[in-house]
Write a structure and sequence with these properties.
single chain; Multidrug-efflux Transporter Regulator, Chain: A, Domain 2; Methyltransferase, Methionine Synthase (B12-binding Domains), Chain A, domain 1; Rossmann fold; 3-stranded antiparallel sheet; binds cobalamin
């Protein structure tokens, strides 16, 4: 999350509107800002991002705010090839421009993950399997995407003081980065306070952290399942059953990721066993709403 703040003059230049319009939006609360001791309006980047997403304002000079042009009119699915091409050559500016412009246009993080970033990574994996994507191109893809997700995080508002807590982890020997990071960003965007418990953690350690931190939601992203599936299912089911109570409600485990196949899915007894971020967003709503 960002600490960058901008003046009405900078925002006016970026949006191609008058400075007095921006001051009016600030004063009416449409564009939340802080005031300095000297009475100057300072608008944080997440406020500007939210305003642009909700009002559909076009950016005349996005670079003033470190933003990108929002020229994308097409559906997310139509940009998968372009993103894949940018990722495998390590073209970080193109990758960032693509993802962030869709975000600015109002797409949710869940939609970006499910319909653009996940499918582009699948193409990387398929290409690797077919011998058309080299190992170093797969590595580059991960690097540029992680840089892009880091940038995206700057645009999200900080959680409220009373935000519910969620934990995110990956199990033993699973060091995938993009899936747990997208889970984190998707929950942050929904107003959760999110702690990354860690990647490659034994389930017993995840249970210990859950007992200690008492989150309302514990998310496990599973791309590589190294332990045997029966042991994984038994241990995770026991953890979900013994999960701590928080204000009279049991902490819920949400599990997902490409290594959760139909067999494992059918045997897991967790709050959510999902295959998309949208399912996670739907699930967290009931927890968050009652918080
Ligand atoms: C990048 C990658 C790697 C990188 C990871 C590096 C890094 N820094 O992250 C490296 C090179 C290390 C790697 C290694 C290996 N990989 Co690999 N890898 C991939 C690849 C290309 C992309 C994974 C990714 O980041 N996807 C991006 C995310 C956003 O998409 P996603 O995983 O689909 O997640 C979506 C959903 O699953 C869901 N979701 C995810 N988490 C959660 C959590 C919850 C709670 C919910 C509700 C939903 C949810 O939401 C996301 C958005 O829609 C995939 C290809 C593929 N088809 O997925 C193979 C893939 C995952 N790898 C595979 C394999 C086999 C391996 C290796 C065993 C290869 C080898 N022989 O060494 C090793 C294992 C290493 C290990 N133990 O960790 C297989 C796994 C098959 C399986 N599941 O059993 C895949 C599927 C490729 C394939 N088709 O064979 N890999």
């Amino acid at each position: 999350m960002s600490t960058a703040v901008f003046t009405p003059k900078q925002i006016a230049q970026a949006l191609g509107v008058s400075e007095s319009s921006v001051k009016r939006w600030v004063d009416s609360g449409r564009l939340p800002a802080a005031k300095t001791a000297g009475g100057h309006r300072k608008v944080p980047l997440p406020s500007i991002a939210k305003f642009i997403r909700e009002t559909g304002h076009q950016l005349a000079e996005p670079a003033v705010l470190g933003m990108v042009a929002t020229s994308r009119g097409a559906a997310l699915e139509s940009a998968v090839d372009e993103l894949f091409a940018a990722m495998v050559v390590g073209n970080e500016p193109a990758c960032r421009e693509l993802v962030l412009s869709f975000y600015q246009r109002g797409e949710s993080i869940a939609a970006l993950g499910d319909r653009l970033i996940g499918p582009a990574f699948r193409r990387v994996g398929d290409g690797w399997a077919a011998g058309t994507v080299a190992v170093h191109q797969e590595r580059r893809s991960c690097e540029v995407m992680m840089a892009t997700l880091h940038e995206l995080r700057r645009w999200l508002a900080a959680p409220a003081d009373d935000a519910p807590l969620a934990l995110v982890a990956t199990p033993s020997l699973d060091f995938s980065e993009a899936p747990p990071r997208l889970v984190e960003l998707a929950l942050l965007a929904e107003g959760w306070l999110v702690e990354m418990a860690g990647s490659g953690l034994p389930l017993s350690e995840i249970a210990d952290i859950v007992d200690k931190r008492k989150p309302l939601l514990a998310c496990l992203s599973v791309t590589h399942l190294e332990s045997d599936a029966d042991a994984f299912v038994a241990e995770l089911n026991a953890m979900a059953e013994a999960a701590p109570m928080i204000d009279g409600r049991r902490c819920q485990y949400a599990v997902g990721g490409t290594a959760i196949d139909d067999d494992v899915r059918s045997r897991l007894r967790c709050g959510l066993v999902g295959s998309s971020l949208q399912e996670l967003i739907d699930f967290q709503q009931s927890l968050h709403a009652n918080h």
